[in-house]
Amino acid sequence: MCEVVKSATGADQVIAFHHIVRNENLALQLVGGDASKLSGFDNGNGGVGGYARNAHADYTTATAVGAARQALCSVEDEEMVKRCAGSRFALVNAWRSISDSSPVVTHPLALLDATTVCEDDVVLVDLLYPGFVSESLQITFSPQHRWLYWPCPIFYSAPAAMAPNTRRSPLLVVLALAVAACSPAFLMPGLRPSVPEKTQQLVAGAALVASMPAPAHAGGMFDFGLTLPFVAGSFLLLMTVLNALFYAPVSEEMEERNAKLLQTLSDATDMLAEADEMQVQYTAEIKEAREKAAQELAAAREKTEAAIEASMTAASTAREKKAAEFRAKLQVQMKEQINGAESTIKESLRGCRDYGLL
Predict the structure, then answer these.
(1) Contact 108, 213 (CB under 8 A)
(2) pLDDT for 201-237, tens place per residue?
(3) Which helix (H) or strand (E) holds 128?
């Protein structure tokens, strides 16, 4: 398998690091006929899995790099590891029928031309395995897709995951042409449904193509020929255009707005300072008015109390005077009455004496 991939791609080194066998009938037998346990994405069921019926790409940008690093870790030749670590690489899914004579008659490997796939057609999904989580790319339907397949394959068929000199986005580089499998309705044209399943075991060898033939200007894992200057120039040009058309007007508007805000803030600060001064002034005036009112109230209270006391004193004096006058007059009247009574008594006694009553 490695030699076939190496011959087809012209790679300096090919490392096989994973395999899977696809035969749905045998896989069902291994799981006791329970279709819910049948997996089309791993070979955990006795080394045999079912068909991957949905359109997908096995590797994402992240998992492709991880798979390449893991494959290099299994290599004991340190010189080869160093040489491969500084080289370009590609992941290749190589499929073949186990039988050397009988062709695959159902569920052939179908490939999707990556040049007909846009990034909106690709969905990143998580793959949950016992003990770890991976990810793959699922493909949504589009009438623009161009599907390809090899009718009745007998021996090796090795579609490359990336052409040697392909330069596309990382997403589409990983997608490439290795979009595998087909729906249950995808059968060979003209195939009779009664044809039994024969020679349908497929062996997949995922290979790391280390140091593929590169152009003279290629620079290892990264190509810094004209790409970096072009990207830098494009970035500077874009920044200049954006600065002239967008950032400069926006900056001017922002500066004007900031100036207005600062002026408003300054006016508000001045008004607050003036209000504080007025509050201090009015507080002092109110305090002074309160003290003056308290003094006037105290003086009025003292004056009123003095007037009341003088009035009471005068009234008391007048009362005492009138009482003295009344007592004197009463004494005079009493004296006159007493004197009159004495005169009457004396006359009465004199009359009684004259009549001999005494």
Answers:
(1) no
(2) 333 333 444 444 444 444 444 444 566 777 788 888 8
(3) strand 122-129
Nearest Cα residue to 91 out of 138, 161, 21, 153 = 161
**Residue 32 resides in a domain:** yes
Q: How many separate domains does the chain show?
A: 1
Flag whether 60 is in a domain.
yes
Radius of gyration of the chain (CA): 60
Residue 279 placed within a domain: no
Enclosing domain of residue 79: 2-225
d(C-alpha 184, C-alpha 190), whole Å? 15
Helix (H) / strand (E) containing 186: none
Which of 24-33, 34-43, 78-87 is predicted with the least confidence, judged by mean pLDDT?
34-43
Maximum average pLDDT range among 176-190, 240-254, 295-309: 295-309
The pair phi, psi for residue 112, each rounded to 5°, is: -110, 125
Tell whether 342 is covered by a domain: no
DSSP 334-355: HHHHHHHHHHHHHHHHHHHHHT
Q: Which of 45-49, 75-79, 189-193, 196-200 has the highest mean pLDDT?
A: 75-79
